Input
Amino acid sequence: MPKMKTNSGAAKRFKKTGSGKFKRAQSHLNHILTKKSTKRKRQLRADAVVHEADHTMIARLLPYS
Output
């Protein structure tokens, strides 16, 4: 049986935490930043946890994580 392939796009976007959840970066921090407040941009730098409903789909994309 051949090895399963990891989805390379998902591998760049998600990391598994020690407790088995997946963390991700937040959106809205790439462009049009002048109208966004400093506080908003600072808070967007923090990682977020993937919602529980999406966990099965992410785990399927990352079989060896």
User: Anything to note?
Assistant: The chain has a mean pLDDT of 97. The first strand starts at residue 14 and ends at 16. The helical segments are 8-13, 38-44, 55-61.
